[in-house]
Write a structure and sequence with these properties.
heterodimer; A: 156 residues; alpha+beta; five-stranded mixed beta sheet; 5 strands; B: 88 residues; little secondary structure; 2 helices; 10% helix; elongated
Chain lengths: 156, 88
Amino acid sequence: MEPVTSNRIAVTVNGEEIEYDVDARRLLVHFLRDDLDLTGSHIGCDTGNCGACSVIVDGVLVKSCMILAVQADGSTIETVEGLAENGELNVLQQSFSDHHALQCGYCTPGMLMSATALLRQNRSPSDEEIRRAIQGNICRCTGYVNIVEAIRAAAQ
Amino acid sequence: MSETSVTQDQPLVVEETEVKPGFIGQNVPRKEDKRLVQGEGVFFDDMKRHEMGFLHFVRSPYAHARIKSVDVSKALALDGVYGTLTSD
């Protein structure tokens, strides 16, 4: 029997319903970046360490380099591109900018998704909880102080 | 000679005038943040060019050997291969 190498998946990405034929071996992050051209989710390590590829799948924070695109079949995916509303930065994004929580911006999409997932569960997190929430995201520019400040301010 | 001379008896004194509004001491909002927080920054891997492909290096499977020739015919026969590059 021929092995099945391609599968049709149906996902909702940032509110848009999409059907797509993907290779069984295709990672979710490659599906998002290369097939859908949503290059906001970055690949920093490809090994699940850096968190730059973090997205929210069915409400759960996921490192998109750690699951296959076919595993996301039927799910609702949120990426950094879906955060702004009508071109207006949301509170969290604005807070990142106001508090200088980014320099090069490579880790920022992942940080934003982690923070978004946190703030949905916990409206007023402590610094400890914020740090715990972004422990899977590595930033090599700013350090984490301003990022924590930005998330704390956005929560208020 | 210059008219102003600074000696130990006559140190150079700059009068503090009115502070003008400027960038010193201010948090200056960055212009690039708006695109970066929306995932619209263009990093190298985000760029796409027409007919862009992947590069794959093939290394010798032998640790110590003399390369007499490189046969690329099988590689070229594969679907989707743009070309090969050897030292020849």
